[in-house]
Structures are given as C-alpha cells and as structure tokens.
Specification:
437 residues, alpha/beta, TIM Barrel, Lyase, Ornithine Decarboxylase, Chain A, domain 1, nine-stranded mixed β-sheet, 22 strands
C-alpha cells in the first residue's frame, strides 16, 4: 500500500509493520503448535510500537533489563510468554521478573542461581529456573559461534555437575536448560544440521547428568542477509524437518514447553534509515560524500560492517520515492558509476558507511537509504557521541504512517546532565568542585 507523509528531517528511520507481521507468521509456521513459543529478543530493537506489533502476532518476549521487561509488560504480552536472559541481571530486574511471574529466568552462574532461588522463595513466585549452558558441541554456519569456548555467556559443560550438586544441596529446583549456540545462519541445510545436533545434545543431557528437564530454550540463529551475495534464509524449505525434530525432542526429553528466540529475523529487514548527502569533497584519489547520519545512528552498518569490509545494501532515491520506502527493494546488482566513500558526521575515522560505494553521480541534497537496519542499529549505536542525538522513527501501517520515536533535541540531550550547582546562593557553571593536587 502506497503511503505518503510530509518529508521529515533527516536522518530518520522507517519500519514496515507488514514486513514484521509477515516474518512473525513465517516463524510461527516452523515451530511446534501448542508446545513451542517464539520469544522476540527486545535487544534487537525495543521500540514499544514494534514490540506491540510482534506480541499482536502471538509472539512472546525475551528481555535482558528492567527497561526491556517494562516495555514487554506494557505491550500486553502474557507474562508466561516472557523469558529473561543475559550475563548480568540486577537484583531489581530479578525482583521484577519474579513479582510478575514471568515464564523463566536463565541463570548464568552459581551466584546468580543462589540469588534467584532466594528471591523466588521470598516472593512465592513460580517463575521457572533454567540453566544457560555453554555446550561443548560443534555448531557452525552462522556469523558467530556462541558455545564451546570460554565465554561470559552461560555455564561451561565442565561446570554443570558442580552447579547441579549446588542446586541439590540447596534444594533449588532446576526446570530446564537454555542453549544459544550460534547466530545469523542463512543456509537452510546448515540451520537444519545445527538444530539436529543441538536436539541430540539436549536429549542426552538427562542421562549424562542425572536430572530431569521440563522446559527447554533452544535459542535462535535465524539470519537475514546484510551484504551483497548473501541470500535470505528460506525456512519454508526445512519447515517439515524442523517440526519433526521438535516433536522428536519433546518425545525424547518429556519437556512440556520449547522456547525459540529471534530478534533480527523479525525486525531487521523491516527497517530502513534515510540520510542526506550534505557535502562532497575530493581528497587525493578519493571522493567523499559526507552524510548527516552514520556510525552514531546505525553502528552495525558502519563501524562493524567496515571491519568486515562489506557495506550494507544502500540505495540512492529521489525525494519523490521517499513516500514509498516500505516498497523499496534491495539493490540487486552493482552499477557502473562513480566510486564514493560514504561517511557520517562524526569526528572519527570509524564513521564510514561504505568505503567503495558505486553510484550514479551524487550531489549535495541527495537521499540515501540504508537497508536491513531494523535490528541492532539505532539502540546499539552511540547516538550521544558528539551530540547529534537519536533520529525520529516512523512505521508504515495499514492505516497510514505513524511516528513512533522522536528526534532528540538539544534540551532533551542536556537533561541527563547536571549543568548548574548552587553555591552560596549564586549559580556557577562548574559541574563539581574538584580539589587540585
């Protein structure tokens, strides 16, 4: 559906609600009905409008902070479809989880296990306790391996017996385990092989370590393409096999609930960032196009992507096309044209959007669209660096385009600082009094 709106100040973000809904339905079809629940990882993008959209599609929430838990609860999600994970959980967060009787908390250390168990008893909560394991298995095919090596995440398999002994001695009931072994898998066969290996590993745990499991969180790994040459994950081609593996896992372990996690798969492809070319300059043998947004607004597409030497998908668009951003496809092929180094506005050499961007000639005032930035973009970026602030956010819906996030003003950015202090009834512009040694 074509939707028009007054052109906002650049830079800004636009999300497609219909793409998010479509991705939710795709995932729902590959998980076991009445047993498996997909949890949206708010770390990918906690914008309440996106979370509410996802919850409206029958998804749960995966949270890692008190803020994320508050957003999840405000979305109307059933508390029994909320899980809490992360290497550090404050006492405040754990208390909120237990008071709201969320589904589970995945603990990552002996100390956290003891604290959670004590709070659980104090608040008479039935929130389940899962152990996050760092499994000693070979899971490959994704952009990052998250198991089998020393890590701040999870409990190493070599430490599991000691943790279970501690739980038994302290009369702490363990309800199951959580394993997240890899992320951003694009190849369907690799995804299927990884999940099959994970199911075999989990099915063997009760006999190996002598404990029963009631619930399992099997993580995610559902990837999206970011760079040229990458293909989207076709989960439909392995749907039947994934359902069969889940059914077998439930039969072999006797668990009553399976949880999956997904962040970027649900929202990543739905987000686009729009920047404007503000200056073009020649420096030696390079032509720089300086834009009004970069590293400070979409970290993944700039600093991280350039470490990989792979620019994200970028399109040049005319002003008339900005009203149809939700319909703008990924650029399919390279074109013959001029080579530019696209950079953002920051005083750091890391602020490179694309080192070798080939385009028809660019001019000051041109608009560029960075695709695939719905996840791990705006909230994982240093938006306060140099004080440009975070941009406005919009969402295209069936009823029109709505604003779901506002552009930071200078005054709003200043509110977090204590600029003036009172001293002898006179205001001073010093922040604190520091003794000089």
């Amino acid at each position: 559906m074509s939707q028009q709106f007054a052109l906002p100040q650049t830079p800004f973000y636009v999300y497609s609600q219909s793409i998010i809904q479509h991705q939710c339905q795709r995932l729902k079809r590959v998980v076991l009905p009445d047993v498996s629940t997909v949890l949206y990882s708010l770390k990918a993008n906690p914008n309440p409008a996106l979370v509410k959209t996802i919850v409206g599609q029958g998804m749960g929430c995966d949270v890692s902070s008190a803020f994320e838990l508050d957003v999840a609860l405000s979305s109307g999600v059933d508390s029994k479809n909320i899980g809490c994970v992360g290497p550090y959980k404050s006492t405040r967060l754990l208390t909120m989880c237990l008071k709201n009787n969320i589904a589970f908390v995945a603990v990552e250390s002996a100390g956290e296990l003891v604290e959670l168990a004590a709070l659980r008893e104090q608040y008479q909560s039935d929130t389940a306790i899962l152990l996050r394991l760092n499994p000693d298995i070979d899971i490959s095919g994704g952009s990052m391996k998250m198991g089998g090596a020393a890590s701040q995440f999870g409990i190493a398999e070599s430490e599991l017996e000691d943790i279970l002994s501690l739980a038994k001695a302290s009369q702490i009931h363990i309800h199951g385990v959580h394993v997240y072994a890899t992320t951003r898998v694009l190849d369907p066969d690799s995804f299927l092989a990884n999940f099959s290996a994970l199911c075999d590993y989990l099915a063997a745990l009760p006999e190996r370590f002598g404990f029963n499991m009631e619930w399992l969180n099997v993580g995610g790994g559902f990837g999206i393409p970011y760079y040229r040459g990458e293909q989207p994950l076709s989960i439909e081609t392995i749907q039947e096999e994934l359902l069969n593996l889940q059914h077998s896992l439930v039969t072999r372990t006797g668990v009553s609930r399976l949880f999956f996690e997904s962040g970027r798969f649900l929202v990543g492809e739905a987000g686009k960032a729009v920047v404007q070319v503000k200056s073009i300059k020649q420096s030696m043998n390079k032509t720089y196009a300086i834009c009004d947004g970069g590293y400070n607004l979409f970290h993944g597409a700039t600093a991280f992507a350039n470490l990989m030497r792979k620019p994200y998908f970028i399109s040049k668009v005319g002003q008339e096309n900005l009203n149809f951003l939700s319909e703008l496809p990924l650029p399919e092929r390279d074109i013959n044209g001029k080579v530019y180094t696209l950079v953002g506005p920051l005083c750091t050499p890391s602020d490179i959007i694309a080192d070798k961007y080939v385009s028809e000639p660019l001019s000051v005032g041109d608009y560029l669209v960075i695709h695939q930035v719905g996840a791990y973009a705006i909230t994982s970026s240093p938006g306060l660096f140099i004080g440009h602030g975070f941009p406005a956010e919009y969402m295209t819906t069936a009823l029109g385009i709505v604003q779901i996030g506002k552009q930071d003003s200078i005054e709003e950015m200043k509110r977090r600082y204590i600029i003036e202090v009172e001293k002898e009834n006179h205001k001073t512009d010093t922040y604190t009094q520091i003794e000089v040694i």
